[in-house]
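[Meeting: bench + compute handoff]

Bench side (C.D.) handed over the final construct sequence. Compute side (W.E.) agreed to return the predicted structure before the next meeting so the bench team could plan truncations. Sequence as handed over:
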Amino acid sequence: MKHIVCFHLLNDYSGSPMVLKNVLEGFLKRGLKVDLVSSHGGVLEEIKGYDNYHIHHYLYKFSPNNLVTMFRYAVVQLYTFLFAFRYAFTKNTFYINTILPVGPALAGRLMGKKVIYHYHENAFVKSRIYRMLAKAMRILSSKIICVSEYQRTMLDKEKNVVVIPNALNESFFTAVHPDAERTYSNQMVLMVSSLKLYKGIREFFTLAEHLPQFRFCMVVNDTEKHLDHFIKSEKLVKPDNLTLMPRQDDVAHIYNEASIVLNLTNKNYVIETFGLTAVEAMSAGLPVIVPTEGGIAEMVEDGVNGYKIDIQDLDKIEHCIKTMLTDKPLYTKLSTNAVTYAKNFDGAKTMDAIMSLL
């Protein structure tokens, strides 16, 4: 039985642990033994009912103080570096999710393990620390999985890189119910986002204010307490047609109530390497509006399954929303094409590609 030891820094409900959950369940269903080393809480706790799965926890969370966060991060890297040596005399592969778990990656290479990185970020547009971690990844990795062609171009001189787009869990496909007639009549614009200004939260409030004839809903990957504090600190005024929701364990039912999904990430600050929420939306038959650059832009063809518009052109986004939710034939075409495109992100195909690396 093949043995995979996976390291992931922060177990929450964001994109990278959601993708990891799908990958680990794919390993387990194919009979591999899996050990996960990660923090308490989050979506990875939902993997249950497998005798060949063991999770090892440590304490870790972000802090509003960057110095405190860095100290905690350094402690976890030292801990997982030492913890990794418990696997020194067993045959296994180290699977590193995101570039952050550098400690166990180093330990794995020192022990002569095969070290596979699942690279979700674009480190080269982030801070110096991320660029250093990306350099470490290139040195320590046996193979690097990129999630889009855009991300692959940042590692164009590497020979050990393969592009494997993320996939949705089969249970998600069964939980959403594409129906263009119903979703068009719902007249609701949805955004699923982390609690960061560069994700376009202020602009989403503005769109809701300018389009009172439609319903708006924003789901943030954070607690209600942090959401309330954020709104107060940024002096945001919530329009009556906007519903705000904290972190949800299950977002499929929210997609079933929406009509359009937006990703308003500001490309001047962050470029999306993938777009999990865009794929989730399209699997539910929802047209999307996404930025014009990055891996997320590779998923959308203007006028076919959605539109690519940058947050800097908010008037155009507003006009596009209004057009889609008042032109039923156009909306139906976009919805049908979205469902067809989402079928490309089948979990079985993704797992076949990842298994080939093992």
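W.E. noted at the follow-up: The mean pLDDT is 93. C.D. will use this when planning the next construct.
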